[in-house]
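Structure tokens
________________
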Amino acid sequence: MSTAVPPVSEATVNEAGRARSTRIGIGLCLMSMFVFAAQDGITKILVKDLPVVQLIMVRYWFFLLFALCFVHVKGGLGNALKTGHPWLQMSRSLIAVFDIMVFGLALRFLGLAETHAIYAIFPLLTMGLAALMLRESVSSRQCVAGVIGFAGTLIILKPGMGVFSLTSLIPLAGAVMFAFFSVLTRKISLVDSFGTNMLYMAFWGALASTLFGVPQWVAPSPVEAGLLLVLSVSGVIAQLLLLQALKYAAAVTLQPFNYSLLLFASIFGVTLFGETLQTSLVVGALLVVLGGMYAFKR
């Protein structure tokens, strides 16, 4: 006697498709965070002997090449050049250059884990700046999350305990810059397209870094030149992975998985650079991550 198989509803099929798409997006996001962490490890090696601005200059020229190819495919250079905020485009691009410079400087003096643990406060800083500059509403839950993240940052910095280091303020300054960059990007994106934002960021970044980078150029060794090439190419790969991830899953879904960058950076720091994860660093980092996840929870 045969048993009838109940038909599968269209809603069930759609739900299964969305779940599969979300899993793919999360996987691509994790891959991009891994590549970003590996990039920072390479940067930490290179900044020992090469100027930070030189690394930024090489990366930005690769980024500009990628941006030109991207806008060519997505509608042409003419369309991408049209912007409603030319001065804001320049400002956010220059902020991005200085942010990367500060982050590279932090890696010269601090470990990967410590740098990323302090820098991870930037989503909560962005939330606060968006409320002040863009008049976005902030819920009571997000306020609580901000307090949790701030407490975690204080635990890492340990001010007033006799072990505070001024170098710990370097990644914090970078986090503030990236928060401003994020808020300006949010404002500009209401008018300009993604391709326009990318093109202007790449152009102004390449121009500014070249002006500062050429006078400080130091001839790299063959090994350093190879690492520079890997650093530049991997940057494009990481951006492509993240772009693809956002095609498969919503940004709010991927937000918690962005914190995997801290995990990967800590693993690289311990295994490759012999870093020690102090209790205060681990506890503080967990609070920062929990605060960020709580703030952006659906």
About this structure: The mean pLDDT is 86. The CA atoms of residues 57 and 211 lie 9 Å apart. The chain has one domain: 24-296.
